[in-house]
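Checklist before submission:
- one chain only
- standard amino acids only
- sequence pasted in full

Submission:
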Amino acid sequence: MAAALRGVFPSTLQESVQNSKILVVGAGGIGCEILKNLVLSGFPDIEIIDLDTIDLSNLNRQFLFHREHVGKSKAQVARESALQFNPDVRIQAYHDSIMATEYGVNFFKKFDIVLNALDNRAARNHVNRMCLHAEVPLIESGTAGYNGQVELIKKGLTQCYECTPKAKQKTFPGCTIRNTPSEPIHCIVWAKHLFNQLFGESVEDEDISPDMADPEANETGEGEEKANDKKGQPKSIPETETGNVVRVNTRQWAKDSNYDAATLFNKFFYDDIKYLLSMSNLWKERKAPTPLKWDNVLVNQDNGEKEVTADASKEPTRQYHKVWSLAECANVFADCVKKLSTGFLKLGEGETLVWDKDDQPAMDFVAACANIRAYIFEIGRKSRFEVKSMAGNIIPAIATTNAITAGVVVLQTFKALQGELENCKSVYMRLRQNPRQQLLVPEKFLTAPNPNCIVCSSEPAVHIRIDTKRMRIKDFRDEVLIKTLNMVNPDVVEPNKGIVVISSEEGETESNEEKLMSEMGIVDGVILKCDDFFQNYELDVIVIHFDSERDEALFEVASESNQIKQKGEETPLKESNGEKKSQTNEEYDEAAGPSTSKKSRVTEVVEDDDDLCLIEDDEDEATVEDKVVAATDKLTVSVKETTPIHRSNKRKPSSSFNDDITEIKDSDDDEEGPTESKRQRRISSKDVIEVINID
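Returned file contents:
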């Protein structure tokens, strides 16, 4: 290959390439292109890791995969395909999560450079920390549509992936989803919650259908329709000998009903809607929904469409760009319930299905349920393609963008191997040329590390506001340390008293899990010493107590160094209702889909399709922001109309970057890319600022 031919590369570069060992993390759209470039460039020793399997939807852009590879390991197939370009290369493939304990700091130390081609923030955070502690250069990359970014991360030289704040993942208020939807996205989120309530890992706060033994829910439907009784609905509320109501949750009720489609349909779209109608205050200023029964689903009420029958469409699920009729939605609903319930019943105890946008029964279930609910609330319905884009927070990726970005990654690799790290400036790819006629726009300077970063600073510390009277130790571990601060197996000690609060050793502190933080003496002003041996990471958590309101979150990161922002801190923008994935993709930062169920684990991240983007809308009286966040490569494009702003002093201005890009930063699954870089220029209030966020 190129490195083996004299005269192609300078002798020093040729020697560096031939003696190098490279790790590629992720074998999706960018990962395939990177692997191909490395092989053709003559890199002799490559390792690649990815937990995902090949889906049919990957084939239009991940060119190392073909139809016969569907369902197989991405990493393994990528290896086999790449070897056809150059059989002399040594490629070792791992079908595994990069966050597995087998891949610790010592694993990373054996590489000369690490190339990230990931699709989710948790995995990116993890690789960032590993490379920092192993002191191995990391080249981060991301794409979204026609936009891309490549950035070097090197300890002590550049900012790390976590030096800059990431936008907090947003959710819709539960009452809007359950009771008063007004937009298609509300119905789509409701449908995803319904999937989890029936087949997935159910979260009590996200349950959207009342239990069958709910006295109020049953009371409203009592005597409404005898047809319900015939379909298996209970005629009365069961009680114990003491008169207490026997509650049967919706999942168990559906199972007891043998997942009869008509029975489920009548509950979710008739009985539950009647229950909502009983809350008259909701409809004083809103148009009330119209309950819909299974037997009436074929009536000519479908927004002026011609009457349809159950045989109106034999294959509606293959008509991706068509808005299904109500009858087609009902048929798809019945078919998906049958398929999903069959898979669900085969699982072991405690196992659940995982919703995945690329799993057809799961995706069709959400599309059908969302459109039926939209019909009931007189909300515009969407095609399956549109629902998938919103449900998975995705837009199709551009194969050429991945190819160009991967090319820049390898060019940066050449510089890094020769020790020219100061020349590895961040590079941004744009859809349109800037005033200097550039599509690939390099930065002029490397961005220095944030001295207050909670990961790469000399004494990492973070202030967290916590309601210590309501938060339990288990929730502190899962929600704060693992989900928010991205630890894997944390240990926590209260140093003043020498108390081990949380231990990564199984069972050692199990008795503490249900205790409130205040019960263990963790109150305002306490400093907790947190350590993750696996990540070789230590962090001081400074507790700031506050009394939360009833529906308020029990904690928020409120660092004095402002390296983490949540709930719109330090920004005048008002957050509107919006939701992102993790994905990412949304993830599902997760992989095989409902048809191949698995347990959902906080510490496990599956590298999902990195060719997709998260979409999020934010709106204020004076500010409109449209964000596109990459699901695998986590890049966000935002457009803002705002008042004049002054040049940021976070980064020195670059003459080569004088165009309409104002800010390039990380966002989100989701969420999902390279570290935030900011650049701003003075503009008039009439200007429109284009903001590209890469995550």
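Reviewer check: The first strand starts at residue 22 and ends at 25.
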